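WARN no homologs supplied; continuing
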Amino acid sequence: MTKKRVIGLVAVLFALLSFLPAAPAGAQAAPTTTTAVVAAKAVTPAAVTPAVSNPCGGSPYACADGNFYAWNGHNGSRCQWAGNAPNLGNCRNTDYLIANYGYPCAGCDWIHLFYSPNYSGAYFCLPPGYAYGQATSPGLTFNKGAGRPGYGQSIWYNAASASWGAAC
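OK structure emitted
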């Protein structure tokens, strides 16, 4: 990994941490626990379970600011959208971190992340309040829309458009 990329990753991690709410004055930290994971058998790509990450904890709307975010894996820049994005612009096919901080909305607070521009091809669903990164969830794929272009491909460095929609 190049020094430039490491600096970009650090910058993105600091950006993600800025979304975490501060603890109230006098609050005690929650006790930490360690969970061991044992693999019982080989896992096929279709069965990969992503590392779920709700950086704000608890409520899916704790970090809500009405935006979907993607970070460019080539230069660390952040892209954001309050509405649909038929083309992810500077973050198209460069995404290595994604986050859904949308407001509560019946049938329109999930992100449908598409393989192709203009909401076409296979897609991946990002629930409200969640963030995923390539480093912690490397196995995420475009797992909706079997038979469409991009189905089964990694979402990392492959997303081209995104729309707000219902849970899927």
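Confidence is low (pLDDT under 50) at residues 1-51.
OK
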